[in-house]
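// run 5 | inverse folding | seed 20
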């Protein structure tokens, strides 16, 4: 939908278009990790978190960002579940079952290990740029000034890092 000035309407952001394009794949990913009914709610949370991100308006790869947000959401959910396990109400004759949160916590730990391994596997310069941006919170311009490389090179390293991490944590479709 476009406004009369020919510019995209406010809802037609790069992130919004990426969300609509990636929605089916993100939903499949979430449904493999959690109950299908919960996956739809989590998908909504992915978009809300992505929109609330400080980086939402300057993303080099919005699709990879949305996948990262989905993975982080699962990790956060697993951590919360590990800290506050839901009480199980069992009849005296029932056998205790494995809590679904336990499986989710294992999957989140596995996802985190894949993520960390992917970051470690990056070339030294790409890893340095990625960590400066994602861990230290530096802007592309600040990284450019600190390392003496162009902003375009910073963007290249970030796209390379995000693509490598996405490949590592996203199962083949």
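// decoded
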């Amino acid at each position: 939908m476009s406004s009369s000035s020919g510019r995209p309407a406010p809802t037609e952001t790069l992130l919004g278009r990426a969300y609509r394009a990636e929605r089916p794949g993100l939903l499949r990913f979430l449904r493999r990790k959690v109950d299908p009914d919960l996956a739809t709610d989590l998908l909504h949370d992915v978009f809300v978190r992505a929109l609330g991100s400080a980086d939402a308006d300057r993303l080099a790869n919005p699709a990879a960002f949305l996948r990262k947000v989905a993975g982080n959401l699962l990790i956060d959910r697993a951590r919360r579940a590990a800290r506050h396990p839901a009480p199980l109400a069992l009849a005296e004759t029932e056998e205790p079952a494995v809590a679904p949160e336990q499986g989710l916590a294992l999957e989140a730990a596995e996802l985190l290990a894949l993520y960390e391994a992917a970051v470690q596997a990056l070339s030294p310069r790409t890893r340095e740029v990625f960590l400066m941006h994602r861990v230290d919170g530096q802007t592309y311009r600040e990284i450019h000034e600190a390392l003496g490389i162009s902003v375009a090179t910073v963007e290249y390293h970030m796209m390379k890092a995000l693509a490598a991490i996405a490949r590592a944590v996203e199962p083949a479709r």
